[in-house]
Amino acid sequence: MYINATGFYVPAGRVDNDHFLDINGLTSDWILQRTGIKTRSIVGEGEGSDSMGLAAIENALPSLPYDITEVDLIVSACYSPYDTVATLAHVAQQKYNIDGAKAVYASAACSSFVNGLEIIEGYFAMKKASKALLICSEHNTYYRNEEDPKCGHLWGDAAVAYFISNEPIAETDMTIKAVYTCGLGNIGKGPEGVKLRPHEEGIMMPFGKDVFLRACNYMIHALQKVTEPFGMKVTDINYIICHQANKRIVANVAHQLELCDDRFINNIEELGNTGSASAALVLAQNRDNYPKGTTFGLTVFGGGYSCGAFLVEK
User: Which of 177, 222, 180 is nearest to 314 (CA)?
Assistant: First the structure.
């Protein structure tokens, strides 16, 4: 598969760590030490999951080498939608009048974006689509519970959009060499590790230690799965982008792989945990900073549990 264009939207608003002292009792230094987060992005008045997703598409359009109406598959992949019936995929189809395209919503917690890629890969393999739009927009602050000292301080808002084809379109394409996902609901705390029940307490992470340990191990496992078919080791990848859940997870992955920090690209310090958009967002933000031939390994872990990775060559 080939990435023809990428776009993203990060709202201008920021919430710094001092905001939480009177809400959940956590100091700025404690939050920074435990998470690596200094500020987190937050939507402005009138913004939300749908508006961020559409803004990410708009950001991608100037570099898209074909008309958006040629898209025949739209996948919205996230866990914090504005509407679970009229999804962002359908909203985008209406806005751009993408006649006849399939419109699908997929959720696998913070693995959602990578699962969305695999869904597209399946449609391409069945020859039921040839050009796809994958949108991931996470409005975490809509569902967060700031009073929760375990995870109320983690969440940021952002959106990312990728246009993907089954055949190369332009010299600027990036190649998706491999995609891997795996459900892990039978591992550790499984479905109890992270929860989002809107009528109860918002996004909750009652078993953060278990999430941390599983994420550190299974994000490496997922990278191994996408490198092995090419006779590569994970350490052969030029740059690794982890799900931006906690910078200590990134540090642990780097330690296990015996890699320097400069082999990892992050945005968590400024944006917080932007959910399933995070790893794809980091690549979209930084793709122009690296030369042709650079390889990127994006790896994620989702509450529920699940993991996923994809290998990209610019």
Answer: 177
Look up the CATH number of domain 174-313.
Answer: 3.40.47.10
Question: How many CB atoms neighbour CB 313 within 10 A?
Answer: 15
In this structure, what token pair is assigned to residue 75? 């996948």
Tell me how far CA of residue 314 lies from CA of 3, 72, 281, in angstroms.
9, 24, 15
Architecture of domain 2-165: 3-Layer(aba) Sandwich (3.40)
CATH 3.40.47.10 intervals, the chain: 2-165, 174-313
pLDDT tens column, 75-119: 999 999 999 899 999 999 999 999 999 999 999 999 999 999 999
Within 8 A by CB and 6+ apart from 22, the residues are none
Q: Are 80 and 110 in contact (CB under 8 A)?
A: no
pTM: 0.95
For residue 219, what are its two tokens? 């994000």
Q: What is the pLDDT of residue 274?
A: 98
Q: Are 111 and 301 in contact (CB under 8 A)?
A: yes
- Per-residue pLDDT tens digits for 265-311: 999 999 999 999 999 999 999 999 999 999 999 999 998 899 999 99
